[in-house]
Write a structure and sequence with these properties.
With 432 residues, this protein is of the alpha/beta class. The chain folds into two domains: 2-128; 133-430, Rossmann fold, CATH 3.40.50.410. Helix content is 38%, strand content 24%. The protein has helices spanning 2-40, 51-66, 103-110, 151-159, 195-202, 207-229, 259-266, 293-303, 352-359, 378-384, 391-398, 413-430, and strands at residues 73-74, 78-84, 87-99, 116-128, 133-140, 172-173, 187-188, 191-192, 233-241, 244-249, 273-274, 279-281, 284-285, 317-324, 327-331, 340-341, 344-348, 363-369, 404-407. The chain has a six-stranded mixed beta sheet with strand order 10-9-5-14-18-19, with helices on both faces. The longest helix has 39 residues, at 2-40. It is elongated and about 120 Å long.
Length: 432
């Protein structure tokens, strides 16, 4: 009798357990369907599509996955989608019912009919798409950037220019023999030559040469990275010196997605060629005022449009990429804060235009190639040494947060430019 009476609660509990277990299994499978649907809307390929396309993909994925679950009813999912810049967030919610095998068990216990068990759940997925970016490279090719690239190279140049007082710079002159008084230019192959020819004959690699190689290599890295990120990176390359910008590569004065052509053009970058010491041309005695940063910044600022979100090639983000030793060398103006030599002014770059550019929402990445303290050189000691210690901080103030890098003599410009490029891409994504 006792056993017979105990069968009643055992049957009740067994029926409830079976129906609950069945419902729990179905809910697990529906949760997986919701997960799959949310993820389907934020795959790398789908991040390039519209919200409506992503909504369709999520709906189809949920329906296909939930079709064979065996629940009595699975209602159409509720899918919400929000976009904030390059970030898409998708939430998939569902309701369904699981048919109970022992409905009378519940009716007996609760005095109501329970032929089904209600099910519900949701899943959320968020993803970031890599931004499309236009890069504007602003590369200093003034004579001070044509210093020997290594300590050994500097020593070689100084030892072979004793008549000049020891010069580590490979200045490029079309008519070095015209100087009066003569500056002791070297004799190469029986002829008076400039230090540019001397460096070549001695096998000394200069910073400009390394910068050209590094810029060309960067185009290959950019091509590989954009493919991996499903993004488009376009390049415009300029050098700057005495008169502002010189276009190296910018078809129709616009950034180009042809990174192979950009790399080829970058490999031709060379130092500014002047007529002779103190002369830009035969008739233009400019006292070697060959670096005008402010003019270059104004020009490139006018070229760059306001940045977009980067979500499409028609609305790219904009990044200005600057490589320089940080010393301005231009005709004296009211803004010159350093001692003068005639009408010449040498001082740290005026970074006010950097602020103007950044205020437009354009990021600035700065690679500072240290202006080497040449304490054996009288010109350096008199005119550059007084502000040498401020150059690094001044250049860093031009850069956007986290986008500053500096190298010293013997440093690897190629590695530095690649690192800064990757930082710029990561920052571009995080700011949206």
């Amino acid at each position: 009798m006792i056993f017979g009476l105990s069968l009643i609660p055992i049957i009740f509990l067994t029926g409830m357990a079976l129906d609950f277990t069945s419902a729990a299994q179905k809910r697990t499978r529906l949760n997986a369907a919701a997960d799959a649907a949310a993820l389907a809307a934020v795959t790398p390929a789908m991040m390039l599509q519209s919200n409506s396309a992503a909504l369709t993909a999520a709906t189809n994925m949920f329906n296909a996955t939930a079709a064979n679950i065996g629940a009595a009813t699975v209602n159409p999912p509720t899918i919400t989608m929000t976009n904030a810049g390059l970030v898409r967030t998708v939430t998939v919610s569902y309701t369904a019912t699981s048919t109970n095998t022992f409905p009378n068990v519940f009716s007996f216990v609760t005095k109501t009919s329970h032929t089904t068990w209600p099910l519900s759940g949701s899943a959320t997925a968020t993803s970031y798409s890599a931004p499309n970016i236009n890069f504007y490279l602003l590369l200093d090719n003034s004579p001070s950037m044509d210093i020997a690239a290594t300590t050994a190279g500097i020593t070689t140049m100084v030892n072979n220019t004793s008549a000049q007082g020891g010069c580590a710079f490979a200045c490029h002159e079309t008519n070095p023999s015209s100087e009066n008084p003569p500056l002791g230019n070297p004799i190469v192959n029986g002829q008076e030559e400039d230090n540019y020819a001397l460096a070549n004959s001695l096998g000394v690699v200069t910073r400009i040469e390394n910068m050209a190689t590094a810029t060309s290599a960067l185009m290959t890295t950019a091509a590989d990275t954009e493919q991996a990120n499903d993004a488009t990176y376009q390049m415009a390359i300029y050098t700057f010196n005495y008169n502002g910008l010189t276009t190296v590569y910018a078809p129709s004065n616009l950034p180009s997605a042809n990174l192979t052509a950009a790399g080829t053009a970058a490999s031709t970058i060379d130092v500014l060629e002047v007529y002779s010491n103190n002369y830009l041309t035969k008739t233009n005695e400019n006292e070697d005022t060959d670096t005008n940063f402010e003019t270059a910044m104004t020009a490139v600022n006018n070229l760059m449009p306001n940045p977009g979100t980067g979500s499409s090639t028609s609305t790219p983000q904009e990044v200005l990429f600057i490589v320089s030793d940080g010393v301005d060398d231009e005709v004296n103006s009211s803004n010159c804060s350093q001692p003068l030599t005639g009408t010449r002014c040498q001082q740290p770059f005026n970074t006010s235009m950097c602020t103007t550019v950044k205020n437009r929402g354009i990021m600035i990445a700065v690679l500072y190639t240290e202006y080497l303290p040449l304490t054996t050189n009288s010109w350096y000691n008199e005119w550059i040494a007084p502000f040498q210690s401020t150059l690094s901080a001044n250049m860093q103030s031009c850069a956007s947060p986290g986008l500053y890098f500096e190298i010293t003599t013997d440093g690897d410009i190629t590695a530095a430019m690649q690192t800064l490029f990757q930082l710029a891409i990561a920052t571009a994504r995080l700011t949206q």
